[in-house]
Amino acid sequence: MALTKSLALVIRFRPYRETSVLFVGITPEYGTLHFLGKGFRETLKGFMAPFEPMTLLDVVFYERSRAQLQLLKEISEIEHFPNVRQEARTYALACHFADVVDQLPFGGERETAIFKLLIEALRRIGDPALDLECLSAAFKAQVLALAGFGPQLYRCVGCRAEDLNRSRFAYEQGGVVCLKCAVRMGGTLPLSFETLKAFRQLIRQSFEEALLQKMSLEIVLGLRRILDRFISYRLETDLKTRRVLSQLRVR
Ligand SMILES: [Zn+2]
Q1: How far is the CA of 151 from the centre of ligand 1 (A)?
Q2: Residue 19 contacts residue 38 (beta carbons within 8 Å)
Q3: For residues 64 and 32, what is the distance between their CA atoms, to the nearest angstrom?
């Protein structure tokens, strides 16, 4: 077993037996891994803060295959994201972002870019200059693109027409569809031309630029509906964290 060092964002944690800990962490190179820290509760004198979900750790572990438990040797806390812990809504959004990344198929090289985006998004949650819904739309649009699920937004997914002034979003086909083709397609959602343009921009820009994009409430809500449905369809599951988040929403 090789000794390996990595960053890991804790997403789930539980004490194990008398003195040990088990946690699940998202890493930049290996996707989601399960870790076992034997005797770690004694070392930490019962202080569990480093294992609190949404904490970024540096971990040293004996690397085994992805399906197995990784045996921890050392940990150190890198970042605790206090901004995320401000209120239930910011914490729920952070958990939802991590959940989306956790559920994405493991894809080797893209892991690092997706991990970086996740950490950057966690750093920006709770920033008073940013709207949480805009942040959420920017993160989801970009994470889909990085994972290889980027939607077709420039041509109709049915007839390849480029005139898309009046269109809908076909989440099963993964892109925009003209109204003529939409009639014979299942699984489409309303998409105004303004929303389509905003969607294109969110994917084309850097994350930092996307965060500053000005979007009306109508666009943000339209995008939320499309992105959530598209993600559920692609991941083949309705994430529990999405449902928790929707219960905490003010709009
Ligand atoms: Zn068409």
Answers
A1: 15
A2: yes
A3: 13
Q: How many Cα neighbours within 13 Å face the side chain of 104?
A: 29
Give the Å distance between the CA of 139 and the centre of ligand 1. 28
Separation of 103 CA from ligand 1 center, angstroms? 31
Domains contained in the chain, CATH given: 2-80 (2.40.50.140), 86-248 (1.20.1440.120)
The overall pTM is greater than 0.90:
yes
Q: How far is the CA of 217 from the centre of ligand 1 (A)?
A: 28
- Identify which of 50, 53, 70, 49 has the alpha carbon closest to the alpha carbon of residue 6: 70
For residue 225, pLDDT beyond 70: yes
Quick one: which H or E segment has residue 188?
A: strand 188-191
Task: Quote the ligand 1 centre to 198 CA distance (angstroms).
Answer: 20
Q: Quote the ligand 1 centre to 185 CA distance (angstroms).
A: 10
3-state helix, strand, coil split of the chain in percent (to 5) is: 45, 25, 35
> What's residue 106's pLDDT?
77
**What tens digit of pLDDT does each residue of 178-222 get?**
999 999 998 899 999 999 999 999 999 999 999 999 999 999 999
Closest by Cα among 181, 182, 191 to 229 = 191
Ligand 1 centroid to residue 18 C-alpha, Å: 62
pLDDT digits (tens, 9 = 90+) for 10-61: 999 998 888 899 999 999 999 999 999 998 877 766 566 778 999 999 999 9
